[in-house]
Amino acid sequence: MCLLDRLARVPIKWIGMRCTFLRWRMSGLGKPVSTFPGHALTAVLMIAAVAPLATATAADEPHFGKPITAQELAAWDISIGPDGAGLPPGKGTVAQGEAVFAAKCQACHGEKGQGRPNDRLVGGSITPGQAPVKTVGSYWPYATTLFDYVRRAMPWDRPKSLSDDEVYAVAAYVLYLNGIIGQDAALDAQSLPKVKMPNRDGFTPFPRWPPK
Amino acid sequence: MGRKRKEALRAEPAAGNGILSRRFFLERTLAAGAAGLGASAAAAEPLAVPPWSREPGGDFTAYGQPSRFEGKVVRTWAAPANPATPGIGSSRTPHHLLDGTITPSGLHYERSHSGVPDIDPEQHRLLIHGLVRQPLVFSLEDLSRYPRVSRIAFIECAGNSGALYTAQAQPLNVQAIHGLLSCSDWTGVKLSALLDEAGIDPRAKWVLAEGADASGMSRSFPLAKALDDAMVCLYQNGERVRPSNGYPLRLLLPGFEGNMNVKWLRRLKLVDAPIMTKDETSKYTILLKEDKAWQFVFPIEVKSIITRPSPGLTLKGPGFYEISGLAWSGNGRIRRVEVSADGGQSFAPAVLQEPVLPKALTRFRAAWQWGGGPAVLQSRATDETGMVQPSRAQFVAERGLRGNFHYNAIASWRIDQAGEATNVFA
After folding, report:
1. Are residues B260 and B308 in the same domain?
2. Complex-level ipTM
3. Would you call the peptide bond into B309 cis, given omega within 30 degrees of 0 as the criterion?
4. B266 → chain A, closest CA residue
């Protein structure tokens, strides 16, 4: 593809972003990358001001990725941010979650999430001076993580098999068992990110990163 | 060689309880010296011609295996707490039986959260999306067409040496304590090239990496790391990455804690803030003495272990021994390793085996004249940033014993009069 064709395909706002990014790179925070097509474009734009006939060979750079649309990749886009970004439609109640839990979770996580043979999900404490017992209730800072993890990884023998409604429901049940939401509560994309976890403020960034 | 010259080459003591000068390794010849290195050995048996010298040997093999006499050099792992959920946990590298710095691929430690997937490389895809100009999908064939880079890098599980977070020292060997550590020659494509092709939106600050395994293991890491030295790896020690190490594609974030080097890599999503996945909130965070926990503890800080002598490798009577071990830092090169035989009262410098590479294992060696009495062996590493491996007391004073992860304090082997080594806190 000719360079001018490429330029024509780049929206003006993106060229601006690339310039911003290049400045950030040049500030020393990032390491220059020679194969960065945006660099080539930006450089050509800068050169173009003084040498309109400059003809770089950006087309020789390896570009083997295949474009895909947001719709086509949706089945893989399963991560849920702490603000709830990515949460799907659907809804589940504590009562519904109790049934899902009994059928699909209890064999490993114990009755009412008390643990054994696998991880305990309920209760526990990280009180100073004692051996910590980390559970969803005592340690997890975000309820969105519970949805994200259950949907992608649980139940252990059939991950990604629960419906979104079932994931909301079982998350509600585990939060209820921890005394975080009420017995009549239901969770959906709006309410789940608003759940205030007891250990929400329990984390602090590692002091020696980034290095001074 | 004159008498005077010989005198100069004696293996003089360099630290207490028999640690000798590293000149022992640096000089070409060395006389048996004041420390009694020349203690006479029993005479050898007469030599017979063995059977394998009298008959032809075996044929070629398609894929070589170690000698049948090396059957003990294997990974080990604990039985799962729940037999119904195998493949959760880790297997460990037998460092007490290895030397050099490259871990054989079949002995690289393994850590999986839902077992090792059996991935068809023809069908595997890497997706890059999120805050990019154009989401892109790459097949393995696509990735194999990019310019490749190789680097030697260690990977250490954040939970390695976690057995030392206890109040009482457990009777464990180097494999059981420190075996979640390995080092390979990794080859792949610089991640920055792929991200640049997708076009990085300036709002992007973090990258979510996700595996194709059943647990969809996922971690967020800073975009700055992606643009610095991150790679997507196709090859390990010259051959395709082994299944339990991420076949057909794994992320390498040199120096960062093991689980961030996401295996079976299928997706990278550029985001403006961390996703707060299960493994970066509930798992790989360090609970301190008080009720706060450190989060996003990325680099493995400077650390060293003595692999020989170590538990199970009984000393065969007083005399000369090489003390050897591994040192590493996720922040750069190892600058110095010192060893002690008196529990840290005195240290002397060890020899660093070349090459000394950043974010890779460095082999160190020291000479020791064991007098036959009690000894406590320690090693203390310093990296090129000037960070010194802390004593256990310093380490515990900073964070307590509830952290589980990133234990890097000086470790100790006690040698008793029978020559047995034991894990101790000293």
Report:
1. no
2. 0.92
3. yes
4. A76
